[in-house]
């Protein structure tokens, strides 16, 4: 079944603005509950930032954990969030999230094509805090065959080119180890050959590989669910304003080639347009100046939903601990000349033989901490000495084995990366220091201390490798510390790291039903928000992988259920 072409002159029960995870989740539940639903998407693609993400969903105490023998309880999850996110901003919504997440995940499992599986070992980001788990709360989408989408496959936003091989082949997490071991293990070599043969067959009839994993699989599964429910999706359509009538939000005005058109929404409008990562005005108002303008989100996340909500009386809370989720990125130009950023999440920073240094050539934080904490450390360090940008350094062995940013593992031809200055190479650490503008004596001393610690297996400066999460992002085959080994095999390499966001945490204030609240704390009838248009339930803290997508699915589900009950809208 293909995309249903919406009739712009029609009216609907529910209109969803934005086709990322939160928006598609809300639309799926609304349609499944019998509401006539329309999805409006500003771009020509479905999937939003979800489609280029890792696709992890954080959902404590989900029923599949128990089925897999992984222990969790609501009390344990609550204790963990109290320890890591506190009892300040968002506390009430976090309690709602914990109470409703199991039912929401079960709903999608039973009433859509969304299939999530708990990861047995993927620790919470602060594994030593009360209530933390080593796995199970983090769920990943099962691989998805994009051929099930038919012609609609072309509407699914592709993953980042840097996370694919051979022009469009996605690689599942378990297969990364096989690619790394292709020259050392006959079993890995055979697995890789099978994957390559399958990919070659897929490209005979499709514009890219059809075996989807990570966030692209989640977005594909959500899209397939909309197709199954015959939910119309209107792409390349900008929402201009919300329509108010009889004391409630009653529809939207959208831009068309023939001028603005109003579409009625009898039950409600859901704002799920992806946050404000690419809005210079909102960044200047809500984010620290040292954050700059870089973002790892899709370029269409320009604050549309937030501005629509603010225009009808919504507000952004002022009690978040932070207003964005951070990630270090490196900047480069793709082969077609377009500017791009590479998010350094788990592929390199925490691996053995990698270390980050500030403008003085000193380490300033634990490289194996979460990407969010790494950037927060950049901000703190920058107050004392230049750390924006900082540099991630490795030797030839680590570059070959793990890659460095946009340079994939086992890359034979480095010239394209060196030509535009992205990858800096030098035959010695002193020459590398000169090229990246740090003190040579200090860098040599820093690496010598790091190497001595690596030999002992103990990071005396920052405790790297000291908890379960560090071990997860490291290399279990490396001993005695999975996150450290001496840097010594020339030549030496560096890339510059800048702060960027993975998504914004500041959004419209909502209640537990995902209703947008006005400045007096009262619901704006008929208006809902989820995803990054809703103020994060974590209020800017980052307790674990998937804490954006988990709440996006849950509060999209809750918004649609609220509309289906008709408690806050007008019956059709």
Write a brief structural summary:
With 572 residues, the chain is an alpha+beta fold. The protein contains 16 helices and 21 strands. The radius of gyration is 24 Å and the shape is globular.
Account of the protein in words:
There is one protein chain. The protein is α+β, with helices and mostly antiparallel strands and 572 residues long. The chain folds into three domains: 260 residues, 3-Layer(bba) Sandwich (FAD/NAD(P)-binding domain); 35 residues, no CATH class; 175 residues, Flavocytochrome C3, Chain A, domain 1. It contains 16 helices and 21 strands. Helix 1 runs parallel beside helix 7 and helix 4 packs across helix 16. The protein starts with 11 loop residues before the first strand and ends in a 7-residue tail after the last helix. The relative contact order is 0.17. The C terminus is likely disordered.
